[in-house]
Amino acid sequence: MAKFLIISDIHGDRKILVDTLNKWHGQVEGIFYNGDSELSATDDVFAGVSTVIGNMDNDIDFAEARSTVIDNVTFFQTHGHLYNATAILQWANLKLMNEEANDAHADVVLFGHTHKEGAVVFDHKLFINPGSTTLPKGPHANIGGTYAILEVTAEQYIVTFYSRQHEVIPDLTVKVAR
Ligand SMILES: [Mn+2]
């Protein structure tokens, strides 16, 4: 079993990122930060963290997107604004990200931008938005901010969402077959 930490859209709230990284240090096989940190790409906090650029990031040294393979899982990571990820009345618009993810042969797609947490299977891939730790939107904004842990077992993907206090939000857990 492998675990991955996924966090996004801190918008300058460096403290929650440091706090969350400390909390999961040594317990995850990969750490993904999905954009809109408003920090420098070379900030110490990003050592060992896979990052991408968000629409509010000024440092052009952040990558636009990345594909990463860890433990036989291929991840496609991007913020979402470059692929029109924002949907007005739905959770997110996955169509353009999906085309890019197909080219990357991705199993799991990681994004942010909408500040709405969720995990869904679309076109045989698991799309995960951890939400924003700091400026949450959508029906679960009252939680006060979220991030996600993905567990990959031989048979399943399990996505668990956590609050800023690192407490599990049980109602949001998503389990899907691999
Ligand atoms: Mn944002």
Automatic annotation (TrEMBL):
Positions of the Calcineurin-like phosphoesterase domain: 3-153
Keyword Cytoplasm belongs to the record: no
Cofactor: a divalent metal cation
Gene3D superfamilies (UniProt xref): 3.60.21.10
Record-listed E.C. numbers: 3.1.4.-
InterPro entries: Calcineurin-like_PHP_lpxH, Metallo-depent_PP-like, PdiEstase_YfcE_CS, Phosphodiesterase_MJ0936/Vps29
Key words, A-Z: Hydrolase, Metal-binding
Domain of life according to the entry: Bacteria
One MF term in the entry's GO annotations: hydrolase activity
EC top class, as a word: hydrolase
Similarity comment: Belongs to the metallophosphoesterase superfamily. YfcE family.
NCBIfam families noted in UniProt: yfcE
Protein name: Phosphoesterase
Source organism (scientific name): Leuconostoc litchii
